[in-house]
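Q: What changes when nicotinamide-adenine-dinucleotide is included in the input?
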Amino acid sequence: MSTKLISGDHALSEFAKWLQSRSFSRIDILVDSHTEQACLRLLKDQLGWEAMPIVIPAGEASKNLEGLHKVWMALLAGASDRNSLLINLGGGMITDLGGMAASTFKRGIPFVQIPTSLLGQVDAAIGHKTGIDVGGVKNSVGTFSAPEELVIDPVFLETLPHEEYRSGMAEVFKHSLVQDKELWFKLNDYRLGMACSSEIIQQAADVKVRIVEEDPREQGQRKLLNFGHSLGHAVESEALAQGATIRHGEAVAAGMMMEAWISHQKGMLALEEWEQIRNRLVKVYPQLPDTILNGDRCVAFLKNDKKNLGDSIRMVLLNHIGEGVIDQVVSNELSRKALDAYPDFYMKTTD
Ligand SMILES: NC(=O)c1ccc[n+]([C@@H]2O[C@H](COP(=O)([O-])OP(=O)(O)OC[C@H]3O[C@@H](n4cnc5c(N)ncnc54)[C@H](O)[C@@H]3O)[C@@H](O)[C@H]2O)c1
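A: The predicted holo structure follows.
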C-alpha cells in the first residue's frame, strides 16, 4: 500500500486537476464544525462547486460509533456507491473517522485525505490507519485502508489555533529525533508561535511516509514512531483520570524528554545531545503540573501498555539525535526516576 501524495503550496490546485481527470458518480465532503468554517470554502473554491458537506461536531468525542453511524447514514441518504468519493477535510479526528466510514461503507468506497491540522499533515493522515474509539478505548476499532490521494497543503494551517499547532509540532520534533537529524537542525530556529515552512512540513511527513512504506503493519521499524509515547501516554492517561486537559502533543513532548533522559542514563545518548533535546523542548512546551507526573500512578498506566514486560517495558530510545532504536527494555524503576527528574529539566535549561 503506497501513499499517493500531493503536497506543497499548490497541492489543492493539483488535487482539483486530479479530480477533473476522474469520473466519480458522486463526491461527499466530511468536515467537523470547525473545519466547516475554516477550511471548506478554500476547498470549494478550488473545486468550483457547492456540495453540501457532512458535518460532525468538532472534538475527539465525535470519533465513536455514533459519529461513524452518522457518516454512514449520510452516505446512504446520498446513495453513495463504490464509484463515489468521500473527501475527509479536517484534523486527525476527521481523517480517522472518515477513513473508517469509507473503508467499511459498501465494503469500501474510494476516499481522499485532506488533513488540515499540523498533526494530521505530518502524522495522523499518513500510514493508512483509520479508526474510532470504542468503550472509552482510543482507536480500539479500525482498519488499514489506503486513500486514493493524500493532499497536504499548508494553506489550511493558517487558521489552526496556536495550541493545536504546538501540539502537532511534537510529532515534527519526534520525526526528526528518530530518523532525520538534518530536520532537527532545520528546526533550530523554530520559536513558539512561528509557523513552519512547507518544506519542513513535507520533510516531517516524508519521515512517516518512508517508515510506514517499509513496515505498514508495525512489525518493526514503524514502532520508531512511538518515541515519546510510552511515558507520554501514561502522563496523558493520568491527566485524563484527574480531569485535567492536556493536549496530546504536550504529553508526547514530556514523554520525549523523559525517554531521551532515559536514553542518556542507559549510556546510549551523549550528554550534549540530551541537553540539546531538553533545551529545545522546554522552550516550546510549558512544564506540566507535578500532580500529573505522579510516579506511582503513571507507572501503573505503563503496566497497561501493550509493551509491558512485568516490571519493565519495551520503549523506543535514542542512540543519537536522528537515530531511534526500537524494543529497548526499560525498568519501571528507571521510568519512575524519569518522572521524578522531569521538573529538573525546566530548572537546568541553558541557552
Ligand atoms: N491514524 C493514525 O495513524 C493517527 C496517528 C496520530 C493521531 N491520530 C488521531 O488523530 C486525532 C488527533 O488529531 P488532531 O490533533 O488533528 O485532532 P482534531 O482533528 O480533533 O483537530 C484538533 C482541533 O483543531 C481543529 N482544526 C483542525 N484543522 C483546523 C484548521 N485548519 N483551522 C481551524 N481549526 C482546525 C479541529 O476542528 C479540532 O477542534 C486523534 O483522534 C488521534 O487518535 C491518528
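Observations recorded in class: The mean pLDDT is 94.
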